[in-house]
Amino acid sequence: MKSNALPAAFAAATVVIISTLSASAQAPREFNVTVAAGQATRAMRPLEMVGQTFIPDVEKRIKAAGLNIKINWKEAYAGSLLKPTFVLEGVKDGIADIGFEPTIFHPDKLPLENITFATPFVTSDVGLVGRVMNTLHRTVPEYTTMYDRFNVVRLGGASYDSYEMFTTFPVRKFEDMKGRKIATAGAALQWIRGTGATPVSSNMMEYYNSTKTGVVEGFIIFPSAVQGLKYPEAAPYLTQVGFGAQYAAALIVNKATFNKYPPELQKILRDAGEAWGAAADTEMLNAGEAGAKAVPGFPKGEVFAFPPEERAKWAQAMPNIAKEWAQRVDQGGLPGGKVLTIYMDEMRKAGARPARDWDKE
Questions:
Q1: Rounded distance, CA 232 to CA 166, Å?
Q2: For residues 341, 246, 204 and 53, what is the CA-based torsion angle, rounded to 10 degrees?
Q3: What are phi and psi of 119, to 5 degrees?
Q4: What's the Cα-to-Cα distance from 202 to each of 52, 205, 211, 334, 339, rounded to whole Å?
């Protein structure tokens, strides 16, 4: 009896071991990924699309590739983990794995990303801006170096629809700007130089009340914000000056974390990031057009297309802010002049007709 029991027990143990090993081999490799942003998703369509488009796309690509990988996603928006201006540092330090980084907040830390704000009046095509920015990231190594300094990898970028001007008075010609107080934010303040207007530093959450109370007489912002923030109630005149679409945000991942992922997952994240950016650009272009169309629905709301000759006057009246930007960036050790030349060349090759060839003066 004993001689039969030993082989039977051995066989049973062998089955258990094999079954355990088989189950272990089939268990997916798991990664915990926290995605953070300082803004609420309702405030910015590209941010909203991180959860609606980017994350589902990553999951779909993992499944299509047959990878035995499971990602446990955690989404922390509206400053619940990182405040708006601390996303870059937060992802660098590993507080979040992936972050929605408004690049416009860091002209000092990510200077090459601000090329579009230094070159107004180039194109209102949001998708074109996105494609040219991706070209710069692929062909200019210093873009990668710039992000390397902060231990992060850029997965994709998103832009805003063309910045335009909302005012309490009609603007029909360039001379109508003289003596007026116009608000805008950050690098866009430079666009008012040479107009005879007084630039007032502000932000999109203050424009409505500042105009209503007479602190300013207008402001420069993207029309996609119209339906959410009701700007024409305070400034009913929308002048489509055509300052142009502006690159403004990037989706970034902690570099040390990214390097731990298998190459297949790294590629999926990059591909999904670029796809997210392209989809967000399309959404913003459509949202900008919808915002402009909504203006006449407000009391006294009016849309006026600035004549090309008046746009040219405005552009020529400004100092060459692109060359000024390039010189500052060059002095900081990054190729500002090179990026300016490539950017403008790529835009012209794609059919853009700048009101001013900033790089050729």
A1: 7
A2: -140
A3: -130, 70
A4: 31, 8, 11, 29, 28
d(CA 13, CA 177): 87
The pLDDT score that the predictor gives to residue 21 is: 44
Closest CA to 248 of 116, 336, 138, 123: 116
* pTM to 2 decimal places: 0.88
Contact 117, 336 (CB under 8 A): no
| Inter-residue contact 35 to 74 (CB < 8 Å) | yes
**pLDDT, tens only, 108-153:** 999 999 999 999 999 999 999 999 999 999 999 999 999 999 999 9
Contacts of 246 (CB under 8 A, 6+ apart): 104, 116, 117, 129, 159, 160, 162, 163, 188, 222
Specify if 7 maps to a domain.
no
In a domain, 279, yes or no: yes
Query: Does the residue 39 lie in any domain?
Result: yes
The total number of structural domains that make up the chain: 1
Task: Answer whether residue 262 is part of any domain.
Answer: yes
What is residue 203's predicted lDDT score, i.e. its pLDDT? 86
Tell me the CATH number at 256.
3.40.190.170
Q: How far apart are CA 116 and CA 344, in angstroms?
A: 10
Tell me the pLDDT of the chain averaged across its residues.
93
CB atoms within 10 A of CB 280: 29
Domain that holds residue 306: 21-353
Whole-number Cα distances in Å, 243 to 150, 161, 257: 31, 10, 38
Q: Which two tokens stand for residue 332?
A: 């900081």
pLDDT digits (tens, 9 = 90+) for 53-81: 999 999 999 999 999 999 999 999 999 99
Closest by Cα among 165, 164, 168 to 211: 168
The single-letter code of the amino acid at 13 is: A
